[in-house]
Amino acid sequence: MKDSFKIPQFLLRFALGITFLTPVSDRLGLLGPAGTGNVEWGNWDNFISYTTTLMPFLDRPMVNVMGGIATVCELVIGVLLIIGFKTKYAAIAGSLLTLTFIVFMTLFVGIQKPINFGVFTATAASFLLSRIPNYEWSLDNFFKGK
């Protein structure tokens, strides 16, 4: 049977990878200062202040740790998806991470925020990517051929 997922899975991997890396770039200030263009946070402090609203039951130092963990996870997942290494596991991790975001955003700021940020789409797309049987143009595929 012909693999009809070659280009769509590559585009989905790349789009999801960028989706995970862009917020990381934003909170590290790489996209510019807050309030310019489509910059949401512009720096780490603004990101942690927002994250505090999602975790009001934690004190700020612990929110800082949780924000750091989320940022590292997003960075790793984004890179793994783009290069196509351990793609299935990165996609599952991405789906679980964004599902966690949905829960906290919905509980503490309302359902509209995860909808506006496309978190439902990222969760579903990550889960879908994890179910694709073969990842063309990926390190997974390269190592499978060895």
TrEMBL record:
Q: Where are the transmembrane segments?
A: 63-83, 89-108
The organism's superkingdom is given as: Bacteria
InterPro entries found in the cross-reference section:
DoxX
Keyword vocabulary terms for this entry: Membrane, Transmembrane, Transmembrane helix
Location within or outside the cell: Membrane
Q: What cellular component GO annotations does this protein have?
A: membrane
Return the Pfam families for the record: DoxX (PF07681)
Q: How does it sit in the membrane?
A: Multi-pass membrane protein
For the keyword Membrane, the answer is: yes
Designated name of the protein = DoxX family protein
